[in-house]
Amino acid sequence: MILQNISILNYKNIAEENLKFSNRLNCFIGKNGEGKTNLLDAIFYLSFCKSNYSSSDANNIKHDEETMMLKAEYEVQGNTEHIHCGVKRQSKKTFKRNNKDYKRFSEHIGLLPLVMIAPADISIIIGGNEERRKFIDSIISQYDKVYLQKLVNYNNLLQQRNKLLKHQPQEDLLLVLSEQMAGIANYIYEKRLEFVEKITPIFQEYYNKISANKEPVSIEYSSQMNAGDFIELTKHNLTKDLVLKHTSVGIHRDNLEFILSGYPIRKEGSQGQKKSYLIALKLAQFDFIKEISGKRPILLLDDIFDKLDTQRVQQIINLVSEIHFGQIFITDTDKGHIDAMLEELDLDTESSLFKVENGKITSYA
Ligand SMILES: Nc1ncnc2c1ncn2[C@@H]1O[C@H](COP(=O)(O)OP(=O)(O)OP(=O)(O)O)[C@@H](O)[C@H]1O
User: Fold this and answer.
1) How many angstroms is it from 316 CA to the middle of ligand 1?
2) How far is the CA of 350 from the centre of ligand 1 (A)?
3) Tens-digit pLDDT profile for residues 131-165
4) Is 359 in the pocket of ligand 1 (CB under 6 A)?
5) Ligand 1 close to Cβ of residue 52 (< 6 A)
6) How high is the mean pLDDT of the chain?
7) Is the Cβ atom of 336 under 6 angstroms away from ligand 1?
8) Can you tell me which atom of ligand 1 is nearest the CA of 59?
9) Where in this chain does the record put each RecF/RecN/SMC N-terminal domain (predicted)?
């Protein structure tokens, strides 16, 4: 899958740009705060109908402007896809594929697979359990619409159950809700388990390459449902739930434990190890989505080399330079990393180099 060109109007600090991209490597170099991440975020927006950073669309419109617009052409499995998005302050956004409005934005998710690695993603490694659940859910939801729907249903039922526990805790009603939640919880649990089992060996291979086999890594899926069926768990914990006035068991308490050399990385890992872990996870996500969707995702690498030693930087450059990764968009403040990457690619590989300055994106002279 290839993003061929993009037109941007008033997206954050980018006033107006019309850019054509290389099928392979697109590099954006600029100082801090110039607009490199904003450009990658515009590309992210076109795949997910939202920014990676701000849930409020108004924040994505350039200050003092009323509207923003993103328009792009993609080559997807031999077809050209025209995607258009417009947002006006205080009104609904429009999102179109080939001039047709989507009824629901969720219909668009999965059409243009994309994996982004950005500094803020380190929260997957060091943040709370919720961050890691979000990480799994966002990947599975990209290819499994039933999963996404069941997740929404589960959360609605969970809210109802918690409300009941708080205000009128009748045991028969609680049991009815638990029964409705049980099938959904089992489905989500099985899908998460399957996902972790599939992604772990791919992740380990990437981590070993990045760290030159320096430290063993593994991922553990910890779920209360490892110990038993949802109905049994809720029955067993009913007294506790009545005291706490919320549901203390279920897939909403699941966690992924990221292990490095036998210990949780979030407690003991160095900054470089955490960064390496994140990059290996995201590259594994890339392989996973590629296999499931049959499309090669676009890879966005935002300032990924910070905190890594020269050996790890080189290993990552070697890895992502492999043809396997297809079209890449990479930002850096340091042209040295980009030059090293260009050296790694064969001479015939087409690449485009851009300079980003105060929201303006120009060809690098
Ligand atoms: N809605 C908006 N309107 C105008 N400017 C905005 C808007 N939102 C963010 N900005 C500006 O965008 C700039 C940040 O751009 P961006 O995050 O893309 O930087 P960057 O080039 O990736 O920098 P770094 O290397 O530090 O990550 C800031 O100057 C910020 O004020």
Assistant:
1) 26
2) 28
3) 999 999 999 988 888 998 999 999 999 999 999 99
4) no
5) no
6) 93
7) no
8) 1
9) 3-343
Query: What was the pLDDT predicted at 338?
Result: 84
So what's the pLDDT on residue 213? 87
| Tens digits of residue pLDDT in 261-305 | 999 999 889 999 999 999 999 999 999 999 999 999 999 999 998
Where does 271-332 have alpha helices with state H? 271-293, 310-320
Q: What is the mean pLDDT of residues 180-206?
A: 96
What's the 13 CA to ligand 1 centre distance in angstroms?
6
Q: Enumerate the known binding-site residues for ATP.
A: 30-37
In order of their start, the domains of the chain are 1-113+295-365 (3.40.50.300)
Tokens 């090293």 appear where? 340
282 lines ligand 1 (CB under 6 A): no
> For residue 289, what are its two tokens?
């989505």
